[in-house]
Amino acid sequence: MKLHAFVAMPFGQKKGPDGTDIDFNAIYENLLKPAIEAAGLEAFRADEEQAAGDIKTDMFQELLIADLVVADLTLDNPNVWYELGVRHALRSRGTVLIQGPRSTQPFDIYTDRKLNYSLQNGLPDPATLNNERTALTDMVKATLGSWHDRKISPVYQLLPNLQEPQWQNLRVGAAKQFWETHDAWVRQMELARKRGDIGGLLVLADEAPVIAFRAQAYLKAGIALRKAECFDFALEQLEKALAVEPDRLLGLQEKGVCLQRLALLGKPGHSLDRARNHYRQILETHPNDAETWALLGRIDKDAWVESWQHLNTIELRRDEAAYQEALLGQAITSYNQAFRRNPGHYYSGINALTLIYLSHDLHISPPYDEHIESMAGAVRFGAACEADPQQLYWSQATLGDLQVLIGTTDTVIRAYKDAIVHAEQDWFALNSSLTQLRLLASLGFKPETVKVGIETFERALARLQKPESKWQPRNVFLFSGHMLDAPDRTTPRFPAAKETIAAQKIAEALDKLGANSDDLALTQGACGGDILFAEACLQRGVKLKLLQPFEEPAFIQKSVLPGGEIWRERYFKIKPLAQIKAAPVELGEPPKNVNPYERCNLWLLYTALAYGIDKVQFICLWNGEGGDAPGGTAHMYQEVNEKTGQVVWLDTRKLW
């Protein structure tokens, strides 16, 4: 969805400074609106709101939320000055000033950069109109491109410590239509998140009515992708969110997690040093944030474990673990800093304490050794004070971990039993604790207490059935191709007589890629290329998912029946073997300026990418030309090429 620009200017005919009538509607229609749209934004004036309501209310909401405000200062119009003042008072950036001919300049902003345009008889001057459109387009792009550079508002320039209000607080209660649209969008976002539809989340993020909402949506999508272990695609979404809100702490922390995981996976361009530096930069502005300190500690702890975990004997593991004492010391320091800054952050406390005890066991002198007794008491108190019912298992498990370090076999068993009661049969939580204990056992640490801890969790897990792992495809085949030509099509593109050739080439492409039951196929299901692809995939055991721009009856009418009744029969043979979803049902109706076919292309692409960028193979049956309407194969090809180069192009100009 396009960004939103609100234009503050006089309406209709007004007397200019020299007494000439100026047609501001013509200026808007011929200069401002085309220039703004050429920059990729949607232009809006308060008088364009036709729904019943208070124009002043709608205008006020736009001034607060719009991505950009363009203010025309040709006249000393009190409404425009007031609107500009409101924008400057509440938003530090995102304002462009323009003006026509005038003999004097407003004193308070006479030094501000403005675009001057020419008039002829009260209308945009034809001799300069094209150049001025281009200049305004460039100015709009430059303003948006330098969003986080110098503040534009003189209010925020003169009061550098003044903080902008969060956009969530800029809700004008009477602007019902705006916020009803927003609330409906939020509901769809939450539904997509709950059902795990990451592709849908990303489509909805693109459709956010203004960029401020989009940042929150990209953050949610990034977190969902990180949890799905699609770290590269998650990082892309998090960086989109941070481009809008660069100081958003949660976004910065999530980015760090992705950087760390990509480094551990050995992805080119990623290293643990890069992740460390990222967290250190966060700590420059948030030095007392316990979570960031803990994440920094996690990097060094994981790197330390990685250095010895693969070795075959306890002796070799202990020797290497001791040799890597620098990493161990850095991890202890970071966890200790986190716990000191927030004694309620008992996760950091127990990590620091465990690593200190491990250091002693490995005959290393750890940092903060002198605080070991007081830290144990602080961890016990912090965990015992946990008030969040959702965290009770972890607080009680922490008390069990503490007993492993300082208690007896009996106190360990008792503490872990108390924790297991609060686990609510969460297999993953119990297994996480068991994994940590097995890690300690692999170093021969505290063998008696660790052993009974392991036995306690193994006994609890034996009563539970391990949840089935979510199926993950080996490859994801994404397809887009021409529909079969209608009988009355003047310029042939995919004639019915060429169906056999197309089917053969699609089958060959799938065989070359080794398509089998470990793979997933995504397409819409239209007559022609889509159905040929779907049939070929099903013949090879590939799981099939059809994502469609309309509800099924409308989709069949628009995209299946144009090929004839035989294609409807073929579609219904596919249907029982495929998972079919419709965008209006899953994502809600598209916004008014969003093409449903382009929307569906993005839904298909984002869904594919959510399984992992490296897994996506795009197959297209295409003549290399633009489509008859938006949202065709040309659009999909362009979008895919921006994400991955793994494309199999079946060029119909060479096939027939």
TrEMBL record:
Lineage top rank: taxon: Bacteria
S-adenosyl-L-methionine among keywords: no
Record's keyword annotation contains ATP-binding: no
Pfam family, one: TPR-S
Name of protein: Uncharacterized protein DUF4071
Keyword annotations of the record: TPR repeat
TPR repeat boundaries on the chain: 215-248
UniProt source species: Methylobacter tundripaludum
